[in-house]
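Please, structure for the following, as tokens.
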Amino acid sequence: MLFKLAIAIIASTSKLPAAHGSGFIRRATASEDDSNVEQQAAVESKFGKADKEDVIEDEPLDLTDNVEAFPSDHNEAKLLPEPRFFSIDHVNQSTEWNHGATSVTSANNGTIKFYAPAETQVGDTLFLFLSRTDGLLPLRLDQWMRGAACLKSFNNQDSCLRAAHCVKREGPYCLEFDQKLGGGDGKDLGTVVFYRHVTEDDPGCWTVELPGKTTVWAIVAAISGVNKDQPVFRTLGVSCDAEWESAFPSVYGKENDVLLLSQSFDDTALRRHFQPPNGTELLGFTNSFDEAGFLYGKRFEETGMSGELVTGGQGGPKCKDALVSLVVNREE
């Protein structure tokens, strides 16, 4: 059974706009906003009319650095809970590892509303891949924990910038990164990964307001059977893989762990341009005028390294992507 729920999140920071949130149950679609009609037309003008599978629809990092918390003195949250998700008693780790994903783009707008997948169940863990071009991304999000980040100040940057490299902060944002690692403000392109464990009181959607009017997109995946004490087991990022395809770095995982591969791309693309690497499936996809996002995933069938995993298809210009390989730690 489905219920409505409202949530209000107010996160105020000095010199930066507040973030607000509200939630209710429904499935996200990336085509419901009228602006996406213009986005589709812009993509088709560049690549021609999309095939059916390309249509917009719903849809090296150090772990100890990424999970450090930003100061929360200026954050308040008010929650009006009602039952939202189904409860589950047992998860078959070998056959059931995800309960879907949703994808959405907010074009030329710093405000984005994203949804939990409709199949989400109590006990799942939501992994939010929040991406942006030419704008600030938060390194702290109320009621979510950060799991990884890969931020870029320019295309050919040698390695991903992350929270530990920040030398000037204001509220949840980093305004300047260490010059020894490329410096800049990390606004060119980036993805920050957040997660939260689903309870009966959780909302169905969230709205986040970010400074500026540049495009933001979000892909949310619901993963089952996650170890609540240490949800993220390994993570590794690449800021310039020097390939037309996208080559995700190899990471270590245990049998039944889940591998999530996130690609944010600083140019528009269709699904067929970056097809899932061997052994993975496409969980989420969204695109706009000048950007695209992909999320692939698979379950580790045995303990070991994932190996470098490369997308299929024609790909796109080199070093215009930001890649994250993340291993979700699942219960034994």
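The mean pLDDT is 80. The first helix runs from residue 35 to 47.
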